[in-house]
Amino acid sequence: MPSDNFAAVTTALTLAAVGVANTVMTPSEAFVTVQGQRAQAPAQLMKAAAPQASAREALGSKGLMAYGMAFGVAAAAARPRRTRKVARKAEGKIAVAEKSAAQMTVSYLKEIPRTIVEPALLKQLLDATPKEQWEDPPEDSYLYTLKMYAETYGPGKATKMGWFDFFYMNVNRPVADNFPVQQGFPTMEDQMAMGQRFRSISEGRIPLYIPGPSGFFNTGAWIQWRGAEPFAGDLVQSPVTDSYLGKGFIDNMAFYREGLKPWQRGLEIGVAHGYFLVGPFISLGPLRNTPEAATVGLLCGCAIVGLVSAGGLLFGSTIKPTQFDQKGEQPGAGFQSMINWHAVGGVGGAAFAHTLITVFGS
User: Fold this and answer.
1) What percent of the chain has pLDDT over 90?
2) Which of 76, 102, 243, 347 is a Cys-bridge partner for 239, taking CB atoms 3.0 to 4.6 Å apart?
3) Burial of residue 261 (number of CB atoms within 10 Å: 0-12, 13-18, 19+)
4) pLDDT in tens, 177-208
5) Which residues contact 78 (CB under 8 A, 6 or more apart)?
6) Which phi and psi angles does 156 have, rounded to 5°?
7) What are the φ/ψ torsions at residue 40 (nearest 5 degrees)?
8) Which of 100, 132, 157 is the last residue of a domain?
């Protein structure tokens, strides 16, 4: 129940109760019966009736009517204010509904789920685009991407979205802060900034952010993550695999380093694998707290090196890769030689780690 209605009802009940009390407390002649005869009440009863008479004078009909009239005037003055407040609320809801309806007049936006674009971003996209371009947006606008999505996915169309399409839409999705102008058309500077950003994103470049103590910071650099072919997922570039440091680190690995013979590659790779495979079994194995922990770690490391070497030999005998072959050798001979020396280096690396642990370990 609204507050003004509650006050009116409770006040009416209060006035009724006061009226009944006023009637009940009206003084009358008091009589007592003594042996069947009526006699006037003694003076004590008349004194008891005196407070009731004074209460009647305090709550007379004139005071009751004055109180009711005052409350009625106050209630009548307060009701239009609440009515105006309710009217303003209703007008606000109608305005929001009209704005949402205006946005939903675009045919391809009716079936766009919220997981693809947030309502706030959609509103800013529409505000930043002339209304006559809503149905046919320019290709450098994110509305064009949404239109392509609506024409590909939805009821009666494709129901399963490809991972690359989802990745592409999330990477290219702008943020709400990129639209500083909320009403009207953007200024020339805003249009140039947004156009440059959309052009960069459409070309497969994204800004480089670095993590910090309170979030991520924009370095001002851009990452060219997309390769020459836009729809080839294996050409996606990253700072780890395509940066100068990343390429330098990978090129210096024994498998890719220039000028090494197959046996040198296999020996170096095997020593590294055998040396690091012993530690997890010694520190985390079920016998880690026993004197036999180092021996068990050595045996487990050698077993893994043997399994990997057997798989490499099987791969070399069936696929026969030729990147390590010398002139005049059979296909896959260089790879087979690298795997054989990998087994030797793996056992040697594990034995060297076992020796260090038993001699210098606690």
Assistant:
1) 29
2) 243
3) middle
4) 555 444 445 566 666 777 777 788 778 888 88
5) 4
6) 80, 5
7) -70, 145
8) 100
Burial-class residue 278 by CB neighbours within 10 Å (0-12, 13-18, 19+).
buried
DSSP string, 144-175: HHHHHHHHHBSTTSB-S--HHHHHHHHHH---
Same domain for 215 and 268? no
Q: Is 216 helix (H, G, I), strand (E, B) or coil?
A: strand
* Burial degree of 318 (CB within 10 A; 0-12, 13-18, 19+): exposed
Q: Which residues pair with 205 in a beta bridge?
A: 224
Adjacent-strand bridge partners of 39: 32
- What is the token pair recorded at 319? 């696929």
Phi, psi dihedrals of residue 216, rounded to the nearest 5°:
-115, 145
Which amino acid does the sequence have at 333? A
Nearest Cα to 225, choosing from 167, 177, 143, 166?
A: 167
The token pair that represents 230 in the structure block: 């836009």
Residue 166 has a CB neighbour count (10 Å cut-off) of 13
Q: What is the dihedral of CA 302, 307, 310, 311, to 10 degrees?
A: -140
Biggest distance spanned by C-alpha atoms of the chain: 152
- Our count of domains for the chain comes to 4
- Residue 257: inside a domain: no
Rounded to whole angstroms, the Cα distance separating 249 from 275 reads 20
For the chain, state the CA radius of gyration. Answer: 45
Report the C-alpha gap between 96 and 135 in whole angstroms.
22
pTM for the model stands at 0.43
